[in-house]
Amino acid sequence: MEPSGAIVDLLLGANVATLTEEQKLTALVLVHRAIASLHHVRLSLLHEVEDTAEIAMAIHEPEQSMVHQKHRSAMLDRLPRMAELLRRGEIDLRRMETVDDRVVHLAKPELVTQVENALVDLAPSLTRTQLARRTTKAVAEADPLGYDQRRLKAQCR
User: Is the overall model pTM greater than 0.70, yes or no?
Assistant: First the structure.
């Protein structure tokens, strides 16, 4: 079930003390999925808003943080299938960022798509660490020369 306002209302109205252990686990899973969906909404809004200073003042956040988050929102366009998983609550923001961190340096959009296609069906069942490893492997397969160059450059630092 996709996260929805009805689920959020149900969770907000729940008396945690009266829930069984199984119900608490179910509620935690639903909260996790709802938070992921809300992260998608936040990224979508940030992607469309121009004035980061106004956002920062309205929500009492440092402007630099808003600039960073707005920059991050480009991953919705870069990884549309992963973004859909985030919207549906099937992956969380950290896993989406993990993939984006590894594909953002790929020179061609078709290489990003190749990596995304290799991961999209697996991502919901992987931990962040497992997804990071799979993404690194997929990037190396999609762009072996570029991967080697970035790896050597990182080793020289």
Answer: yes
